[in-house]
Amino acid sequence: MVGPPWDPDVEWTLMGGLRELVVARGRANGMDAVGISDATPFTSTLGDLTSRRDVGLHADMQFTYRDPERSTDPSRTLIGARSLVVGAVRYASQIPDSRPDGGAPDGRSVVGDAERSGPFGVVARYAVGDQDAVLRSALEMIATDLRNAGCRAVVLADDNALVDRAAAYRAGLGWFGKSSNLLLPGKGSWFVLGAVLTDADLTDPSQPTGEDPVPDGCGTCRRCVDACPTAAIVADGVVDARRCLSWQLQSPGTFPHEFRLALGDRIYGCDDCQEVCPPNRLADRRGDGDGVHTGVAASSGRIDVLWMLHADDDELLAAAGRWYVPKRDPDHLRRNALLVLANTGDGAAPVIAATIERYLRHPNDVLAAHAAWAALRLGRADLLEPPAVAERAAVQAEMVAAATLAPTLAPTRAVPRD
Q1: Which residues are part of the catalytic machinery?
Q2: Tens digits of per-residue pLDDT, 143-177?
Q3: DSSP 56-69
Q4: Distance CA 363, CA 53 (A)
């Protein structure tokens, strides 16, 4: 994106310098907060990533765990880097629960006009709007200003080259909550983060530096810890990805049996730790969560899982949009839809029984296994009786798992979360 022509005599006089200019540019283009830090290596964060990876807390997550040395050393991305301009854009946290005109993303019926009422899967709030476009646009404007001033600049948004929360913390945007989310003072954690890395020295020598740019605001509060449905927050600021529903929904393969009931109606992401956070609740009561001020107000936070299970590959991936889908495999989304169907569906409904029957015969063993789970969960063990189904190893494995979990695997319709 091309910014306004650079006129140093005018711009620098009006804005009081390049540092003030880039901060003002970010705010003028939709950022809720902008801060500046030096670009020295994040040595403490490197130690955290390495130690957590060594004990398996990252599960199979890659991103900044893939190459921690690169993610924590800005000079690996831009030789001679001196500063980071870090920005935050709020996303909508107050969104409608369901679509009034049906479950498909475009309002079409699912499998006929009589089937327009779900079950629905809940989508995490950050995946509903397009706040990333607002963030990236603002970062590009800042980068353009820097380049026009003769500096080098690289935009880093949702990029494994930078530990963005650590950068935002150092830049004074907020503190780390017990959930590991970054909380902005008076605003909460419903934000996406990004940065511009530059060789310009934008740090302010008059500003004090220290270990805690923003003091901890959590105190003794542990609502996020207590609210996590799988006890994934194992220490202050430490999340075990092996237990985190948000990550398990993105991780390929078989969804862990021990967390399937806790999954409930979540189809992508999990917001529980943020929903109970007092700063977030206060910000929502103020009306900060509608997303209107950034143009990213969301129309819905739910999607019809029956529609997902009947959509073709292209339709399904188009509906997923910016969701992370391993290898862009639509069957991964269908796996998650089967889990939500198992937890929220009605086994007596003909369309649900027919859908499960179809997936019990699916050539993908992972889908057949999760369909078997759905049948057992909804009290429809009879769907597993045909020899072509009963003799599948994937189905037999689910039957064994169900027998192990019999005390908790009640054949009843689950009630969606409020």
Answers
A1: 158
A2: 999 999 999 999 999 888 999 999 999 999 999 99
A3: TTTTT--GGGT-HH
A4: 35
